[in-house]
Sequence to fold (272 residues):
Amino acid sequence: MSSFGLVGFLVQHSPDVGTALRNFVRFLHLHVHGTAPTLAVNGRRASFGYEIHQPRIESVDQLADAGVAAGFNILHPCAAPDWLPVEVQFAHPKPKDTSPFQSVLQRPLRFDAEQNAVVFSADWLDHQMPGADSELRRLLQKQIDALEAKHVDAFHEQVRAVLKTALLTSHGTAGSNCWPVLDAQSHLASPVAACGTSFQELLDEGRFSVAKQMLEDSSAGVSEIAATLDYSNASAFTRAFRRWSGTTPAAWRTDQRKTSGRKPQSTGGRNS
Fold:
């Protein structure tokens, strides 16, 4: 965790695993840009995920694999020596040789999933962090708050990144557990308003970004994209897209492919 600087030390000295992971999700943007960790709880299971939001990154599957392995390595010492995940998920197709994955993770693997994530029992979130120092945590939090105050725009970008992840994994609502970055903002009365915008504006902006990504980089149909973005039907999505871009999704896709000469990729597990 020391490789994550102040954020890593804050995680190490958080009172419990749930708080540690929420701190990691909430403040990682101060240390790394272009990625968004997520923490979601669904019933008795929790998932600690990793997404890359920089467009057109090379070897994105390998980077996602590294992110999942890092998540595994973060959770293992935080929880307990006997901690093991229920399942490890990857958004890319199953490789021909899965032995390297098995040797490191030693748990059931699922490929073509909606996200890159380590899935584990939500009971572990209440597990006390070993060696946590409350006074040191207070000092670390004070330093991080001061650092973040200098980078308000970075918080705005983090909200955008987490929203994009939420949309791609069908959690694009303000009440979703995929929104720890919003829920954990304690020193601003309204973190979204503090960014000079509204949730709906960010949601529309995120939908437009995801729609363009899927139209350009996948073979997903308009109906499929509309469903991913939680529109009631393709017509509603087309009307929204025309409002954002001045043209239809099909026309935009055709123009982009003529310009770039790129061929559509497989939709994979996330249709993106």
